[in-house]
Amino acid sequence: MKIKQISVFLENKPGHLNHAAKTLADAGINLVTLSLADTEQFGILRIIVKEWEKAEHLLKENGFVVKVNEVIATQVRDEPGGLAEILDVIEKAGLNIEYMYAFTFRCNGEAVMMFRFTDTDAAAKVLTDSGMNVIGEIDLFDKSC
Amino acid sequence: MQALWNDSEGLFNPASAPDFLPTQKLKDLQLQRLRAIIRHAYDHVKLFRERCGANNLSPDSVRELSDLGKFPFTVKTDLRDTYPFGLFATGMKDIVRLHASSGTTGKPIVVAYTDEDIKVWANAMERTFSCAGLHSGDVIQNAYGYGLFTGGLGAHYGAESLGATVIPISGGNTERQLMIMKDFGSNAICCTPSYFLHIIEQAKNMGINLKELPLRVGIFGAEPWTMEMGLYMERETGIKCIDIYGLSEITGPGVASMCLHQRGLHIFEDLFYPEIIDPESGDVLDDGEEGELVLTTLCKKAMPMIRYRTRDITRIITEKCPCGRTIRRMERISRRSDDMFIIRGVNVFPSQIEAGLLSVEEALPHYQIVLTRSGGLDQINVEVEVTPEAFSDKIAEVQALQKKIAHAIESIIQIRVTVKLMEPNSLPRSEGKAKRLIDKRAQE
Lengths: 145, 444
Description:
The complex is a heterodimer of chains A (145) and B (444).
Chain A: E1 2-11, H1 16-26, E2 31-38, E3 42-49, H2 52-61, E4 66-76, H3 82-92, E5 97-104, E6 111-117, H4 120-129, E7 134-135, H5 137-143
Antiparallel strand pairs in A: 1-3, 1-4, 2-3, 4-6, 4-7, 5-6
Chain B: H1 23-44, H2 46-54, H3 76-81, E1 95-101, E2 109-114, H4 115-131, E3 139-142, H5 150-162, E4 165-167, H6 174-183, E5 188-191, H7 193-205, E6 217-220, H8 227-237, E7 240-247, E8 252-257, E9 265-267, E10 272-277, E11 291-297, E12 308-314, E13 316-317, E14 329-330, E15 335-336, E16 341-343, E17 346-348, H9 350-359, E18 367-374, E19 377-385, H10 395-413, E20 417-422, E21 437-439
């Protein structure tokens, strides 16, 4: 149910994002998706890759500060109210979302929300029990082709 | 009296005997040496003789220790003005060694030693190592730079005099330092605290757990470091951090040292006589009062220093040390007048910023202070490298860390600071004295 996400600390300076991206590209690691959260002074790059252990090791070796967390990927119905439906479930269960980001699969164009919850395990259970389409690791990497 | 071949237990080093003299005997010895050194300097150093003459002073003016207070000060510029050999009190034929300090501005400062001066220096450093609980049979890795800098050779001679096994590795090549530390089983490391920080970091990268090595003590000097930094290093490595104090003008390292009780530094005052003065008026202050440390070399023949103003702020600790040494202690020097900067009219010492930074739980030890000016307003930027432990994937948590650090520093210096988190290894690493302060204000 839970997906490993790698977060990388970046100074807000030209070339720093590229350095991280290139480190992974040179090793042939493909990004399923990414999100960049930034402030005036620094940014946090969050990435989802299949070979997360290899990516973590590579980034660390190249001097990046890295943290691995678990997030939850949930498919969203591609119609009005699709997202609201999921958020309703989350709200009713009193789950706290730290942050979220969206992406679509390349093959079939299905939309997916990535959620970082304060309590990942509880969230996984609530979403599954409510019949939401939570995507597991295998599915996620399969569908991303 | 030196440690002999069978003094390897470390219970008591005979060379440390002067540290335990009864106070009156110590004073008698100091007075006897003071009279002799004043006469020696008067007879052989023109500048000193002229200054004495201008104040109607002669060697006969010294009847008791407090008479030293009548004599003129020597300051750093005196050494520059008489560059290179103007303050030498012996001919070159008696001088066996020259050292020089890194002149940050212009000409360096040159210091000289007779054969006997070297022995006295070795004795002071031997007593320093004894303070740190080291003895013959211990392996001492000396990572101070060998060369014109007094640190390397000063520690080297002291460690040999102690009968310890010296590894004269000098500074730099950190991977090799760690390999040797592990393979040779070093019990002590001598280096600047900023270099040891680098060693800690490199050990982590190499997968070496310093806590599992026989290393038990670090002899850290040549730059001021805060108690907070010491606690960080002790926590990370399991060693004891010993602060040592010295300056080339007086002898090099070996003027004063912490003992294992780690409360202040014992001044080897049978060799280096301390006074604390009011830096403004020049008046001698009582023990316990804070002021500038002034030192007089009681035994140095090649280049006697009478009342040398160190620019270091401290006070004499009057309470007895549990270690039993009777020589006086001074408070650790966390504030060097030379390092002080003035920002928006307030005096700030880099050590205050370090203390604040390391008082937060995440303790990030790699930092740099950058002073900038924008729109006529001076600003303190503290650049701090983030560590994996302190980093979070949540923006709010990282910002909270920034705020926490800024707040800890601001509560000490009472001026707003901007904390900038940096990627690891983005700040320069030092193998000797770290350059923590960068003042860009003149450029803007």
